[in-house]
Amino acid sequence: MQADRRRLNAPAGGTAPPVFASANTSPPRRRRKADEHRKIFLQTGIVPSAAGSAYYELPPDPATPPLTRKSSLKITCTVHGPRPLPRNAAFSPNLLLTTHVKYAPFATKTRRGYVRDSSERDLGLHLETALRGVVIGERWPKSAADVVITVLEGEDDGPAGAHSGDMGSGWGMLSVLAGCITVASAAIVDAGIDCVDLVSGGVAALVHDQSSEITTVLDPAPAEHVTRAACLVAYLQSRDEITEMWMKGDAGGDLGGLIESAVQSATLARTVLVEAVKDSTEARVAAMSPPELPSTDAASKGRPKDVVTTG
Amino acid sequence: MAADPSPAPTSLSFPRSTFAKLTPGPFLHAHLKQNPPIRPSGRTLTQFREQQITTGSLTHSHGSAVVRLGDTTVVCSVQGEILKAADIPSPPDESADNEDLLETLGLLVPNIELSTGCSPAHLPGNPPSTLAQSLSWKVRTLLYGSEIVNPEDLQIMFTAPKIDEEDDAPVPEVKAYWTLYLDIMFISLDGNPFDAAWLAVMAALRTTRLPRASWDADREAVVCSPALEHYAHLTLHTTPVTATFAVFSTANPLKQRSEAESWVLTDPDTSEEEVCREALTVTVDGKRVLGIDKAGGRVIGMEAVEECVKLTFARWKEVSTILP
Asked: Locate the Exoribonuclease phosphorolytic domain: which residues (chain A) (predicted)?
């Protein structure tokens, strides 16, 4: 492989991830109910220089012992724009939306490269279709907006130890995409781009439980289950629309039931999304409401003084 | 009673943010002209931004840190991987001393990524910018140059068992090395990327714990112990701290040099960096100066450099108490 001349590269001999002597640890088990979503942490406005930004995390369960610690999803999203298209670009009556999803090199068990691979480009495309149905593009002719997502920590691919080359491109990809959809929705609202509704992502899966019967669970953590099929939807609750659906595996006859469960999972994620958007809007209104009085507020609150600028 | 006490709204008045965007230079100048000079952010000239360090939040890393410096946020992860001595194309001499072993083999691999959407100036989809490449290189130079990491921590030794009584005592040999990947991702960029990145590197290295690795002669491979109590911290020789200063000057080719005024701004943010044409980065460790890097301009003289070094020593004291 040719070395990347713009980055500092690994030693010429090539390195391998450490191999561990087998530890007899029990794989993590699902402690939640089948229809319970993991706790979501969602906050907007983490990148002040961007038009809109948000951070999404599924914090690890504090009850799990440190040795069996599994991935806890961490995603940041920034939205740059809408900004005018460059002069030489062709006319566009709609907002040009581009999405960009990249895993950090340390996001999965196996290190990833710095250059986007095809699975990341695929995630970006799925995200774009999910968002395209929500954004009112006609309101922003001749402009463009970039949605940039960095996955700081991905989701495991399957039960611990089952895969050696764990790149986060198996079952875990669906949870990551659901997180991407929810966080991008929050960031787009934070950027003030008009939307028809809030879109949220949700995943449901058919899994083999301990007695090897098949059950449907919401928001599966792939490390905890043997998954048979999984389904992701991007769902607009108030319009009852699905802008993106992605199903993997053999769902058997009950397709409708699985989709219905995924929609239910998206509805749960939406409650957190609504809270985060409400918080950010309230904060923005509060920042706007005391109109800037040049002389009074500076002295009393110790804020930087306004100065007279001439010329 | 003649004068109207209420300030009449002037005919042309913009909020602060508009002035800052339209004329960043005069805006900063107007702030610094005050007595005492106050920067637009409300800081004094020598004041650093608030920092916040969180460590150990990444699952797949051996050490990690999130550092906030005002509105600049950086994540640094340290991941160890194994380089087999047999795989090295041109192995170093047995007699060579350990000192530049790390650099010869390239066992520390720092990379800075700015294309994470951290600021509108660094949009992804492009190869790393010159700034990102130069920052990676600076971190690399400082890591190797100040000999922070102990080479012995990264060597995986093996002593062959004695077969015959008559043999000499077997000599331990190096079978493999740990390679440390330092990935530094900017989440949010608001000026002074190098200080933030370096602080994150130091915090991550200080919390790095590598598993105990041993050479398995039968499998011809390195095997690590999964037990948590066998993880060991790195022994770091030094704790360098960097501080960056920017110089704002009203110097102008059309004016006399004596008319120009200048101010040294500690820990500049993006709005200040954009209008400053001279910068100084000082690296110190305890009582030693490890490096002074001055870029451009002709304002900073000997005294100003000494002043900056003093400020950096004070900064070192402050930072070394908060580093984990």
From this structure: 36-193
